[in-house]
Amino acid sequence: MTLTLHRHSVQTVTFGDKAGIAGGTLTVDPEALRDHLQARDERLAKIRIGLARPGEATRIVCVKDVVQPRLKKAGEKAGTGTLCVLDDVAVVTCGPIVAFQEGIIDMSGPGADTTPFSRMPLVVLDIDVSEGVSPHEHEAAVRSAGLEAADAIARSCIEAEPDVVETVAWDKSKAGSKLPRIAPGLPRIAYVYLVLSQGLLHDNYVLGRNAREGLPISVDPRIAFDTAIVSGNCVSACDKNTTYHHQNNPLVAELLRGHGTRWDFAGVVISNAATRLADKQRAAEAAVELVADMKADGAIVSKEGFGNPDTDLMMILRGLGQAGIKASAITDEFAGIEGDSQSLADATPEADAIVSVGNANERIRLPAMSTTFGPLPDVTRLAGGYPHSLRDDGTMEVELQSIMGATNQLGFSRLSCREV
Amino acid sequence: MAKTIRAIHCLNQFFGGLGGEEKGGLAPQWFEGPRGPGSLIQQLAADIAVVGTVVVGDNYMAEHPDEGAAEIVALIETEIAKDPALRPDLVMAGPAFAAGRYGMSCGAICQAVLEKLGISTVTAMHPDNPALDIYRQTLTVVRAGADVMGMREAVAGMVRVGIKLVAGEAIVPETDGTIPRGLRRNYFADATGAERAVEMLMRKLRGEEIRTEYPMPVFSRVTPAPPVADMAKATLALVTSGGIVPRGNPDRIESANASKYGEYSLRGLDHLSAESHQSVHGGYDTTYANEDPNRVLPLDVVRDLEREGRIGGLNETYYATVGNATSVKRAEAYGREIAAKLINVGVQAVILTST
């Protein structure tokens, strides 16, 4: 089983009536896209489609999700077949706040340094839903519109000749079977992929199902690249894993890169961070068991959200430690504005190999921008914003918490935190 | 070569060359140029000119640290007023090594200079110097040896760190040889978090030394109070971290990392309603809490208990904050304050609701 990526490198994005890609220029037909989205969902009252480019004085607020255009050309099963992939471009959904935990993307200035999405042209969907649509329907409508827009854009390029054809191989060695290991002597490494699944605007979707059901499961790592994990949650912007992050999961990419040469990538266990303690215990135990079944020597655990998911992380690390499986983990910190508080809501002695992706409480001052997508005053209600965040001159002071992907716990960025 | 950084150096009576223990009570004195270790500063740093030296007795500072530090600030201001060319870019104190009184003196001086003059300061101490209990978090302190044997190394460290401070560069304890301040600060690493996590695991698997980027915190444990003997005689209070506030959020409590808690009256209220109260919490979907705020702050059932005589009474003030991305340090402070207030008005029992 192989996964083949037909990669198109997008240099620029423009609007025009001939949607498609040619010579590195992606053309999007905004009217056609809008009509297409509104025709399939009457909840979408108003969609303003715009472009935001790296370096522009542009701010996008109340960002819900970021999606990379990727579409299946051939094959059915997730993680196999041929995908059309548009690199260095993404669809961003934004608009009035649904819940407190949506985010900011700045395309230039200090804020741009803290979000990966400032580095690529963005097709922005600024969406208003019809009156009377509940918050949950609002989230669902916008999520679905973002995914559909990304699909439509990829579909317009599906016949184009790709710039790069990449085969993503994962020759899984069978632990415990009579088949030879992929390379004897290499350590077997598993990846425990925690996704938030708490209902009430804190949901994700795995293989088409709400992550509250059917997890943990052991999966082919390549399903992540096939948009099989979709974000539907409104946890703080800094550490919610957007659909784009899942599609480009850096741990999966890194583990596949060294597979067979530096280590033996045993596979991925997707587990969920639930709300009830008993569910957390059950999921953690089951996840550790799946890793143990892989005969893994080591495991890496990634996280989403903060606070109660700290407990899921610690339970899994404790379980792995007790099973004799060495582990490292990625977390962000909430160490207070001055960095003088302890950073996590839970701890365990087994968590002795932690990668910190930053203190999300640290403040950042953002300059005024000439172009804004979405309702700017709503930033005062974002998690990480303050009632007094927005000044009259358009400058803002917010916590990193409110910036999309600032402390991504899949390890997407280089931000870290240390004691001074 | 022109010296680009002007420094004022602070010493005790001994290193200032004014005498031993018998001169410990000496009031602050100003000297032009470097004295004692100040010459070493100039020798080690081509960039630093020690334009003046303040010498003060250890006992003088130990007996009145605040007044002494204020006098020294005033002394420096007076000298600058006389000669503006003396305005320093940097104030250096010590090294104090493991000497407790000298350490306290250096700490008090640096703290006062930072706060009142806004000028960068650097001192040096042994990690066991008791002054660090007070000044660790606020000051930049170079790690020094226990005694004067470590003079050259300590001064070299102060010089190196001082130059970086003046340049506005970040100080990193590990590479700059300073005493960790216990403050978490962000920076951009050379590799992504994913790459670092994989490498850290590989080192662990090979049995090599690993350096975790976040050592686990030690959690304080709260011993639960004994059960209330007779609830029918007890005054009950309601406290929530679920963000239930009077509609309109009069205290503007933040949806995350709340900088305050509110205290609100329950007098005359039989229950909360969507019209009277709301949740401003940013960490959960507040749809159902806003529909019926009693779901988070259970006033309705507590009033029932009160009517039925199953509780002695309800404290007519409730306390609320937002427990979302709120640092543990802040939360502990709110908890202590609220508890003190409740004890003060004779409350025996509290229902705490979280979300």
Structural class by SSE content of chain B: alpha/beta
**Arrangement of strands in the largest sheet of chain A:** 17-19-14-20-21-22
Total helical segments of chain A = 6
Poorly predicted spans of chain A: none
Range of strand content of chain A: 25-35%
**Which sequence of strands runs across the widest sheet of chain B?**
2-3-1-4-5-6
Q: From the alpha-carbon coordinates, what is the Rg of chain B to the nearest angstrom?
A: 28 Å
Given helix and strand content, the structural type of chain A is: alpha/beta
Number of beta-strand segments of chain A = 26
How is the biggest beta sheet of chain B arranged?
6 strands, mixed
SSE string of chain B, helix = H, strand = E?
Answer: EEHEHHEHEHEHHEHEEEEHHEEHE
Percent of residues in helices of chain A comes to 10-25%
Approximately how much helix is present in the residues of chain B?
Answer: 25-40%
Topology summary:
The complex is a heterodimer of chains A (420) and B (355).
Chain A: E1 3-9, E2 12-15, E3 20-22, E4 25-28, H1 30-40, E5 44-52, E6 58-63, E7 65-67, E8 70-74, E9 81-87, E10 90-94, E11 103-106, E12 122-129, H2 135-155, E13 164-168, E14 188-196, E15 202-206, E16 209-210, E17 217-219, E18 229-233, H3 243-247, H4 250-257, E19 264-273, H5 277-293, E20 298-302, H6 308-322, E21 326-333, E22 354-359, E23 363-366, E24 371-373, E25 396-399, E26 415-419
Parallel strand pairs in A: 1-9, 2-4, 6-24, 10-12, 14-19, 14-20, 20-21, 21-22
Antiparallel strand pairs in A: 1-13, 3-4, 5-12, 6-11, 7-10, 8-9, 15-16, 15-18, 17-19, 23-25
Helix pairs in contact in A: 5-6
Chain B: E1 5-12, E2 29-32, H1 37-44, E3 48-56, H2 58-63, H3 65-82, E4 90-97, H4 100-117, E5 120-125, H5 132-135, E6 141-143, H6 151-166, H7 173-176, E7 184-188, H8 193-205, E8 235-240, E9 244-246, E10 262-265, E11 277-279, H9 287-291, H10 299-307, E12 313-314, E13 317-320, H11 328-344, E14 349-353
Parallel strand pairs in B: 1-3, 1-4, 4-5, 5-6, 8-12, 8-13, 8-14
Antiparallel strand pairs in B: 2-3, 9-11, 10-13
Helix pairs in contact in B: 1-6, 3-4
